[in-house]
Write a structure and sequence with these properties.
Elements (H helix, E strand, L loop, with lengths): L1 H23 L6 E5 L6 H17 L3 E5 L6 H8 L7 E6 L5 H4 L11 E17 L7 H7 L5 E5 L5 H13 L3 E5 L3 H9 L5 E5 H9 L3 E6 L25 E9 L4 H15 L2 H9 L9 H21 L7
Parallel strand pairs: 1-2, 1-3, 5-6, 5-7
Antiparallel strand pairs: 3-9, 4-7, 4-8, 4-9
Helix pairs in contact: 2-9, 6-11
């Protein structure tokens, strides 16, 4: 009798242990990745380049949900307040590290309330205008800015495309007016419609329109020309020596997320980014894959934060409410 009871207890304990291990295995159900901008924007584009492959590696679906508004802070707040179990994550532009320079009363702390997970990819920023625009080159824009107010759009206030435009105005000592939108898609629509002069955007969102003849590429932000657009000069070549900016997009988790979960998702991102079919998709939209670990991403994000907060200060950008 005693032996039988012992065997039953052992079986129960073994079953409980197996159940706990199954629950502890990450992920055991679908993951929600919040994109805090309008559908069809650049953040979603970057995420979709690799997320199907990340999901295949992890063995669970990844659902991308849009939660737009307030320059991405509505979606970011949702993730900041989520459980740190790895099932609610944030995909955001590099403006995540610049929020404190944009808003005086944030409902979260961008660096303290999140854990950096990984980089989705990086890309040059392209300055474009509609095909019928009077500006044929970026030098034309810089010359016109000496006597008139040029308007430029971006997908979000405080985004890297926005700050790239601000950096141009600071370096050239021009006055240009920024027109922010909630996502690249509506910004693109307004530039195509002639309501705004220029758009600063990553290549992924504008290459189809450039190839289709609807947009004219005026300049790229990186120090070297893009192989896909060899005839389009850099901003540095167009009269702004030393200009060099690259856009990046990252994944963030709530601050209480364990290192094991962060590393598991990061590892899947890096593995997915190295797959030949993913590399082909990235190359088609001029995106460079990332091999940064979560720890390397954290150090990089802090460096970017310091750099761009200084640019915002020099551009006399005051935090809003």
């Amino acid at each position: 009798m005693h032996r039988r009871v012992t065997m039953i207890v052992a079986a129960v304990l073994a079953a409980a242990s197996a159940g706990a291990q199954a629950q502890d295995k990450y992920p055991s159900r679908s993951i929600v990745l919040i994109s805090p901008y309008q559908a069809g924007g650049t953040t979603e584009t970057f995420a979709r380049l690799i997320m199907d492959d990340v999901a295949a590696i992890l063995g669970q679906p990844i659902v991308i949900e849009q939660k737009p508004g307030a320059a991405g802070t509505i979606g970011a707040r949702l993730v900041a307040n989520a459980k740190g179990d790895g099932y609610t994550l944030l995909a955001n532009t590099s403006q995540h590290v610049m929020y404190e320079g944009m808003f005086a009363n944030l409902p979260f702390q961008p660096m303290k309330d999140f854990r950096p997970v990984g980089v989705l990819g990086s890309a040059p920023i392209i300055v474009v205008t509609r095909e019928g625009s009077p500006y044929k080159t970026f030098r034309d824009v810089l010359e016109a800015a000496k006597t008139k107010d040029i308007t430029f759009a971006s997908g979000a206030q405080g985004s890297l495309p926005h700050l790239t435009g601000e950096r141009v105005t600071v370096q050239g000592n021009f006055r240009m007016s920024h027109v922010p939108f909630s996502g690249t898609a509506p910004a693109l629509t307004n530039v195509l419609g002639g309501h705004v002069d220029l758009l600063y955007s990553t290549a992924a969102s504008v290459m189809p329109q450039i190839r289709g003849g609807k947009l004219r590429a005026l300049a790229v932000s990186t120090k070297d020309r893009m192989s896909e657009l060899p005839d389009v000069p850099t901003i540095a070549e167009s009269g702004m020596p030393g200009f060099d900016v690259t856009a990046w997009y990252g994944v963030w988790a709530p601050k209480d997320t364990s290192q094991e979960i962060v590393d598991a998702f990061n590892k899947a991102m890096r593995e997915a980014s190295a797959r030949p079919e993913v590399l082909k998709r990235m190359e088609a939209v001029s995106v460079t894959p990332s091999s940064l670990t979560a720890q390397q991403f954290a150090a990089f994000a802090e460096s970017e934060r310091k750099t761009w907060l200084e640019v915002m200060k020099r551009a006399n950008m005051k935090p809003g409410n």
